[in-house]
Model the fold of this input.
Amino acid sequence: MVQMLDTREDGFAARFEELLGMKRESSTDVNDAVAKIIADVRARGDEVSSISRRNSISWDLREAGLAVTEADIAGALASVEEDTVEALKLAHERILAHHSRQLPASESYIDATGVELGQRWSAVSSAGLYVPGGTASYPSSVLMNAVPAKVAGVERLVMVVPSPRGELNPLVLVAAALAGVDEIYRVGGAQAIAALAFGTETIRPVSTIVGPGNAYVAAAKRQVFGQVGIDMVAGPSEVVVIADKENDPAWIASDLLAQAEHDAAAQSILITDDAGFAEDVVAAVETQLKTLPRAQTARASWDEFGAVILVGSLAEAPALSDRLAPEHLEIATENADALAEEIRHAGAIFVGRYTPEVIGDYVAGTNHVLPTARSARFASGLGVLDFMKRTSLLKLDAESLKKLGPAAMTLARAEGLDAHRRSVGIRLNLPD
Amino acid sequence: MVQMLDTREDGFAARFEELLGMKRESSTDVNDAVAKIIADVRARGDEVSSISRRNSISWDLREAGLAVTEADIAGALASVEEDTVEALKLAHERILAHHSRQLPASESYIDATGVELGQRWSAVSSAGLYVPGGTASYPSSVLMNAVPAKVAGVERLVMVVPSPRGELNPLVLVAAALAGVDEIYRVGGAQAIAALAFGTETIRPVSTIVGPGNAYVAAAKRQVFGQVGIDMVAGPSEVVVIADKENDPAWIASDLLAQAEHDAAAQSILITDDAGFAEDVVAAVETQLKTLPRAQTARASWDEFGAVILVGSLAEAPALSDRLAPEHLEIATENADALAEEIRHAGAIFVGRYTPEVIGDYVAGTNHVLPTARSARFASGLGVLDFMKRTSLLKLDAESLKKLGPAAMTLARAEGLDAHRRSVGIRLNLPD
Done:
């Protein structure tokens, strides 16, 4: 049974804190196991990948090789339905168009002192994209991770994906081809992350690794961080829906369930100012669960982590939502734009009754890789900048150095760094 | 004795690989100790900070309290030399001016389908700034870390700094006051990071933590990553200098030593096309070491990690430098601008003979917190964006949902996510 809170009831603050502090992920400590795998891959390369694959499958992948071929991709394309490919193409086109606007501008200017200052954005040379196997192997996620990399200008985009029974989701291959992925390897788990970070005989190392994965993959990304760049370590998905009573309860229920069906650890929260509407939504959730193929997962999520928060006024909603800092926030109210203006911490905001979060999962053009577990307080969704870095540039001449140098020398002395002081003084003919 | 390489000699590739692979930091494993400290701070708060401080100092800080007061800052200001304060003010002004140009623009637009897409940048609400104690307690670093936070719009900027004998570097306090730091606490080490991440009775938690520190601080930042945002974990400083024979060898030697005096694990590398010039620089380093107060540190760095790379032509230099992906790159050649254009991986580039790296350490306006240990391949220097996050916004109406919805439904079906499909279909009156 989903929990119901009311901001006007005694003990709301404590119950809300509890909701905020809820741990939705079992924190199995796989750090030691992962450290061992990484060391092993660094020492033995491809061999490790092969062995680990052989342990979990009957088909010997070493025969087929790690690399996915052009023929594999052609085969995949031939095997999938045309309307799905068309939908992927539309998604690709829209993601490409939106992310192209994220390209940062390099700049250079000369200030009043005659100093030339610049910042130059450039792409990482290579990036790795982890794609989970099994049920979480989503073609949409391939697009969401690969397109920003290609927009950034990454020359070598390498995808890794486990193929437990020698099989790959053909749509994942189609999406990779659409997005311009350059290399694909059949390898998963911590060993795939290690291979991307340090390289093996088959897989050359990359500069940055992105993409979701299980606890082993997450731990491996954390451990190789520094050797390579990584994106956020993503947790279970979540949505907050702020809704007034003018909504069709069934629409809102379907949105809550769309989140809940992802994962038993997903979280769906409704904030509303109408008790009757809240009850209607809860009833609609029950009705819809009856005909939902993934009802077991969705029910587990809804019963354990779902919540309905009743507020005296919807004006209270933005502050509550900011505390939750949700990955996804839907605002289905009369004054949705005004409420959206007040939000400070959310991965993505879906404004108005005709903007279900699902549209952002697939075809809107915005990215669906978003900060989870309250990290929207400090983190952003995946974007073009995650595949770029900024180099600063400075250029002084004798004149401008004469103007700025003495202050630098004063600070160097104050910090006790005499070679610093000398490096400027020697150019200005100033004694040590 | 500094090592000399020549791209034309046999075995250069192997020696260069060795240079690239050089481990300059002893990797003491402090992870378990740090995990214990973090757990302890979470359980006992301020008490832990007090105890740990009492273990290393004789003066009981609990009497004075953790917080630095207005009076402490006024006292600091009165105790420092006026020309140093003036230099800090100049540095502050210039850093502020340059970083103000980094503020990203939020945007919103309606595309041809009628979909409103937006991205809204906003500051993190609060940030923590770690400042090391002892010799590495640099006022310039306080400015470099604090100014971008304030430019971003961070409302609550909290500085932590250990005060081993109850003392603080007064210039650090002056810099903090100049930069607009809101709270300062006398606490250091992993417990300071834990306090910033999880909060104690005295210190409210923050959203993002930046700033350099020792192995404990670095490990703590890594462990709290996810709970809060963190900047890069910085390693020892480094410089690559590309120089032709037209330079005064003493100038280049002073630049190499300015880097080397930071830390015995710092690294200074000269790339030049003239063997005689290389010898002159090496001789000038020896001469300058004789009169350098921090000669012991600088010599250790130069002898163990320094290198001179002779190239047949300076045209080879950019590719070599890109492999090293240095934190700092000086280009002191005739065609410095053209060479700078070819560089892809560097934290900062200092162009021309009158741009010693030191000018960027203090007063140029660019940030001196830059990616080390080859991480310039994927990471940027500290900037305003490190204290901001991007929220994406979407708004559809009935018409635009009708256009995009069917493709989303197709993809949801392909991914086996029926509640996703329903969430769109229910709004379009399309059956499941």
Notes: Chain B has three domains: 31-105+122-230, 235-378, 396-432. The longest strand of chain B covers residues 116-123. Confidence is low (pLDDT under 50) at residues 54-63 of chain B.
